[in-house]
Write a sequence for this structure.
């Protein structure tokens, strides 16, 4: 948390005050061999809704991240941990940090692809979340409106995963 706060230029315990990492959910993913991957969807493009995601995976490829308009393979490195910025961190940082759109392809290999993700989310679902006031100025106005995390998660789970549309929903139009 200290490095995130330092990167934003806010006091060290600012994100802790917001209970940003207090709720954690772990999910294990198993992608078996798919004999016709070109006919099968893996995990559709999406961003993670919370603050941070910590991912460990075996050495099988399949995870891709969107870079500009292209999908790029994220080649597994033995022993590496993948950290994804989530939508809530993008919003409270007023776009200083960006959530990463990613997807998982169907597995064309005989060996299964396995990953375990820990999603770090705000613990106070009724609190209002939006850009940190100390990051807003005349030169850098708020990009997002405030909302309750409960409402945000309700929207996330009521739709199919489809890219970055949820952060766009809370964006203030200029």
């Amino acid at each position: 948390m200290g490095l995130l706060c330092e990167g934003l230029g806010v006091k060290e315990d600012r994100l802790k005050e917001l209970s940003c990492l207090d709720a954690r959910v772990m999910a294990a993913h198993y992608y078996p061999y798919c004999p016709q991957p070109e006919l099968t969807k893996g995990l559709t493009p999406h961003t993670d809704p919370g603050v941070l995601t910590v991912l460990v995976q075996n050495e099988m490829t399949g995870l891709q991240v969107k870079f500009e308009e292209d999908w790029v393979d994220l080649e597994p490195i033995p022993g590496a941990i993948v950290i994804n910025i989530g939508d809530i961190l993008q919003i409270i940082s007023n776009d200083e940090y960006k959530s990463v759109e990613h997807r998982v392809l169907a597995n064309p290999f005989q060996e299964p692809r396995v990953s375990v993700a820990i999603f770090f989310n705000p613990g106070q679902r009724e609190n209002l979340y939006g850009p940190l006031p100390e990051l807003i100025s005349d030169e850098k106005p708020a990009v997002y409106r405030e909302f309750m995390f409960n409402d945000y998660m309700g929207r996330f789970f009521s739709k199919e995963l489809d890219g970055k549309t949820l952060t766009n929903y809370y964006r203030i139009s200029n």
Q: What stands out?
A: The first strand starts at residue 23 and ends at 31. Helices lie at 2-8, 14-17, 87-92, 149-157, 165-169. The domain at 20-169 is CATH 2.60.120.330 (Jelly Rolls).
